[in-house]
Specification:
- The chain is mainly alpha-helical.
- The protein has one domain.
- The protein has two helices and no strands.
- The longest helix has 30 residues, at 29-58.
């Protein structure tokens, strides 16, 4: 299996996971995508950046 095939398979597995899980929590695939990758991920990134900067400042 090539690297490209591996990435394609991994991507499709993630898509299938979101398609399977979305209705279980009462959402569509598009809604869960927005929540995960437009709202939650950026907020977590900002949170971890703030925590890292605080820890770095404390020395």
């Amino acid at each position: 299996m090539s690297y490209d095939e591996f990435i394609d398979d991994l991507f499709m597995a993630c898509v299938h996971l979101l398609e399977w899980g979305a209705p279980k929590i009462g959402m569509t695939y598009n809604e869960i995508n927005i929540w995960l990758f437009v709202i939650i991920h950026p907020l977590l990134t900002l949170l971890f950046m703030v925590l890292w900067l605080r820890a770095r400042k404390r020395g």
